[in-house]
């Protein structure tokens, strides 16, 4: 009995890669902005229905803010926010 190599399987067609999603204008997620209406610093969590969803750096309840009522946080504000977030995480054992 002779052993023959089995016939090669035909190559499966591959789907093209998905197209990149269009992003709306505004700050990228995981950035910090200041709500100019209240002066509150918030981390951008998401965008929904034309609003930015912001959360306090230490955690807490998110609030909605129109993008036109925000400004980028300064380097000092961003550093302060990151330290506050890390301190809050260390208190809760994350």
UniProtKB/TrEMBL annotation:
Amino acid composition bias (Pro residues), ranges on this chain: 7-30
Source organism superkingdom: Bacteria
Location of the region described as Disordered in the Swiss-Prot/TrEMBL record: 1-31
Designated name of the protein: Secreted protein
Organism: Streptomyces stramineus
